[in-house]
Design goal:
The structure is a homodimer of 604-residue chains. By secondary structure, chain A is α+β, with helices and mostly antiparallel strands. Chain A folds into two domains: 260 residues, Butyryl-CoA Dehydrogenase, subunit A, domain 2; 279 residues, Up-down Bundle (Butyryl-CoA Dehydrogenase, subunit A, domain 3), CATH 1.20.140. Chain A has a five-stranded mixed β-barrel with strand order 4-5-12-7-6. Chains A, B: Belongs to the acyl-CoA dehydrogenase family.
């Protein structure tokens, strides 16, 4: 097993230097924090992850969660993650002091969770979903719900889940049929089936608090008629006793990856005795859920970035230790009398490693940026500033979820390839990361759905205001970088790409204006790859700018090599990744329509 | 489980119409065959695969091969594959009548093995490696080796393997250290370790015949000093009794995929009693092995094409049956009162399905083309024609191995994505195909090694003669297609791409001419993707040309829709795949050098 799963120095560089944590700490909410204290928190998380998470990653794959006699059984470290993690504030971190939290900035929470994800991606989800469901109760639930459920969730004693998907509806939430029938007792009677419920049941929590989307009898069709309920596995009575609430664990889905993270099928109200308590107002369930969704989507991007990071370090270590083959002599031949070289010295292996590095570190920088926007939209006092960061977050969020997931999977594949035949063998961790990360393009809205969100909704927000704001951010970096002769050509390249992107977007909007929405959105996924790649070019140019600045001004927190390597990685991104946008813009400007169904089926 | 794993009609179309099996049958060697009899053979293979291979694919994954007490245990269908398959000629098919074979063209053998691979990719390898090792004995071994080993191999009673890789050497065969010490008894004493030996041991064969690369004591260093030996697991004596030959099964590698296909670690001569018999001349081992390598590389491309095909049909069937979501109305909204649509009607799902279709069917066409070249180089009487097809085969073989493997893995990923969350669950087959196909970019020379072969050796063959021949073939298709107004623009596009490719190649050769071979080959892998995509554009244009021709002339063996769909798929390839070459040519023309190691390590 690899000895290291992240480069802590790079994480700190991105957090403190590139994304300037201090700017976020200016918000009143964070008055008690400073960089030094937060750094200690992150060190503690790293130490916890080294000791309690990383050593169990292979074991959790080999001993997957399973369902037996109506119960789900998971690895013992789930208990440690929830209880010790709960104690450390890994569930409650971002909550207000009032709610028992640490009032951490999202930026720090993301960094902390990234470390945990990279150490063992099968574990932090148990805490993350408990956090997410507690957050829904805190924001939208009444005092009784808060008092009854939130403290035990934040301590890790009770698990929390989000119950959206149903077997017949899949991603289409307007087809949710789980039923809520009002009673005169203040609760609703819930009946229905939910699938793909992560962390939905296990032996290490006394209770589970399910946040369930359901339709109150007589509610309008579609997403407008969906309400949100707290449905505990066991109902606490006034003495604190827990009584069964007719929630059944039907099954645990067996999966290709993340096998230690249970994925349950839950049944509600089989015996007509399942009670649910309305959160907030009726018919507002989807709105509430989606207000929390940005956090969830940052979490997915973060998890994928973390797996890509761990895979990068595992394959890098292998490449540094494995002798094989020889370097080419100037006649193109190899001299067999010469000793073997390490595989890290083969250009093709370096290409695969650098690809992993730019995807992993770039993705981390992107999720940190989203987290910073998340903080600033909350803490900024000026309304227009608040709105600016809210719009920026809305625009980038589908990319934040998708780019690390899609490109992370490709990066991990390169990591596996670095090991050759060993990469395919279960003795090595790469094949596990390859399986684990494959769920990320599906989680929390598939790539197809995120892409439609990006092109069909986010680009049109406030008449394109969000895109204008992002463009300004990018132009600002371009201007700043242009002052460095060594980097200017990359800034110019990005400027050119940005101009072409505007043309591409106009040409796509043309379909929307004509009312041909199906055509407008039919190439949304290539558009996602297109805009993400341009955005990532900006992310890398920004990283390089901060490195260059440190080298030029001499205000260095890291070694010269450290900064030079970041600039090298930026160049790699521009040489090997940015050119993809040339082909993608051709696809997007191509007027031929080949994927819209008509009477004659072309698929056979 | 899906009901169909291939589209037999498409296979026949490619075999009979596009690649004109009849042209191959003109060779004297195939005088006894005609299309009708070969069609019956393929029907029998399909029937065998339906009954004996396809039903066991999931079971073989769930009950992987394993090692216990020095023996490897595999699924019972391995016995059926070898014995019944052997009886049907699935091992001996391409061998001469003299050797007990059917004298089948490679083109037909490939089609037959493709069916088996698509049905269950865990099984045909057992037969394929037995065939490959028997072929080495037939071509280069003496009469005694032939008589002793070949008949029992072709009947499937004994297994055969290729033993190349060693733990310390990996892909670098010049570092093979397995030792062969001559004796006065006509045999050598063999000692060493071989790893990643597919089909290296199991309970269903009385004996195994290992073709082992080893170094005769005192042989020169490097690949020049490697010889080839027959090393049986058990030595047959003159009475036909089998005696242990000091070959130990050390382990069975546990893998992420193809878990039913054992991958053994073999030890030779632990007790100093392992005998090997030299095949052909000393120090010629690698040459012999590589003369057989084209067949092995076609087989890898074929297997990957087959898995991509099976995955395509599984996801297509799901998409045709799964209702979810609604089509967009002209206002961009969805009407929840409307019934759900099938997911095949969503453009993004269609895009993923069409991507799978063009990769799977295009890859099949490519491996069939390679097989046709393989036949023609053997059966053509004219020496210059023989040489032409030999060169064409040499040039395309690295692409034949790589394109289906790399793009097939991406296609299967799209297949998994079509199923959403279910795609990740072990109840569905897509996740298995996703794991199974991942070994193909590693098998028989990784993508990196194939890419260096393509750029560093094949492009330079006879001063670029091979590339000139391929270019002429492509230009001929362009000319032919240009007569159809509807298709002309695609022909023009391919012509343009071909011209740019010549510039790209010249600019790369510039480094070779300067003697900077490391730089020349440093972007070999992007070059592989580049030239493969252009080659595949030609493959698809050729398929479309044959379809258009049938529609225009009315000489139809298939429905109009069948032909129209092939043309549609070609258009899809040109819209969504060909543009990749724009970015790739930018990468290849970029003069910046970022992946060549120097003193300062940029990777951390």
């Amino acid at each position: 097993m690899a000895n290291e799963y992240i480069d802590f120095e790079t994480l700190k560089y991105l957090l403190y230097d590139v994304h300037q944590l201090e700017e976020v700490l200016e918000g009143d909410r964070f008055a008690d924090h400073d960089v030094a204290s937060l750094d200690m928190f992150l060190e503690a998380v790293k130490e916890f992850s080294d000791r309690e998470l990383f050593p169990y990653i292979k074991e959790m794959d080999e001993q997957p969660a399973y369902h037996k006699d109506g119960n789900v059984f998971v690895h013992k470290q789930v208990d440690v993650m929830m209880k010790k993690g709960g104690e450390m504030g890994l569930i409650s971190g971002t909550f207000d002091y009032d709610a028992g939290g640490l009032q951490l900035p999202m930026l720090v929470y993301t960094a902390s969770a990234f470390i945990q994800d990279a150490a063992n991606n099968h574990l932090p989800g148990y805490a993350g979903l408990t956090l997410g469901s507690a957050e829904l109760i805190v924001h939208f639930g009444n005092a009784a719900l808060n008092d009854t459920y939130v403290p035990k969730m934040l301590s890790g004693e009770w698990g929390g889940t989000m119950c959206l998907t149903e077997p017949q509806a899949g991603s289409s939430l307007s087809d949710v049929v789980t039923k809520a029938v009002p009673t005169n007792e203040g609760y609703y009677k819930i009946s229905g089936q939910k699938i793909f419920i992560s962390g939905g049941d296990h032996q290490y929590a006394d209770n589970f608090v399910h946040l369930v989307l359901a339709r109150i009898e007589g509610a309008p069709a579609g997403t407008k008629g969906i309400s949100l309920f707290v449905v505990p596995k066991k109902r606490p009575d006034s003495d604190g006793n827990l009584n069964p609430n007719d929630v059944t664990t039907v099954a645990d889905f067996q999966k290709m990856g993340q096998r230690g993270y249970c994925t349950t099928h839950l049944g509600f109200g089989d015996a007509d005795d399942c009670r649910g308590w309305l959160v907030g107002e009726p018919h507002q369930g989807l709105k509430y859920m989606f207000l929390m969704m940005n956090g969830a989507r940052i979490a997915v991007g973060r998890g994928a970035a973390a797996i890509a990071t761990a895979a990068y370090h595992a394959s890098l270590q292998y490449a540094k230790e494995r002798p094989q083959g020889r370097k080419l002599a100037s006649d193109g031949k190899k001299n067999p009398e010469q000793g073997q070289t390490l595989i890290i010295n083969h250009p093709d292996v370096r290409r695969m490693l650098l690809h992993q590095k730019v995807v992993a570190e770039g993705s981390l920088s992107l999720v940190l940026l989203a987290s910073k926007y998340y903080d600033l939209k909350e803490t900024m006092k000026d309304e227009s500033e608040k709105n600016k960061y809210a719009l920026l977050l809305e625009l980038i969020i589908p990319m934040v979820k998708t780019y690390p997931s899609e490109m992370g999977a490709q990066a991990v594949s390169n990591g596996l390839q670095v090991l050759g035949g060993y990469g395919f063998c279960t003795d090595f961790i790469l094949q596990q990361y390859y399986r684990d990360i494959r769920i990320f393009p599906i989680y929390e809205g598939t790539t197809g759905i995120q892409s439609q969100d990006l092109l069909g909704r986010k680009l049109l927000l406030e008449n394109g205001k969000a895109l204008e704001l992002l463009t300004n951010e990018i132009l600002q970096t371009i201007e700043e970088v242009s002052k460095y002769d060594q980097l200017k050509k990359y800034a110019v390249k990005l400027g050119e790409k940005l101009k072409i992107a505007q043309k591409v977007i106009q040409s796509l909007l043309h379909y929307a204006k004509k009312g041909d929405f199906e055509r407008f959105l039919s190439d949304a996924t290539p558009f996602m790859e297109y805009l993400s790649t341009i955005t990532m070019a900006w992310i890398w140019l920004d990283i390089a700018a901060h490195s260059k600045n440190a080298l030029v001004t001499g205000q260095k927190n890291h070694s010269e090599d450290f900064y030079e390597n970041k600039i090298h990685a930026m160049k790699f991104f521009f040489k090997y990744e940015v050119p993809k946008t040339s082909g993608l813009s051709e696809i997007l400007m191509d007027e031929e329509t080949l994927t819209i169904a008509d009477e004659k089926e072309v698929l056979n």
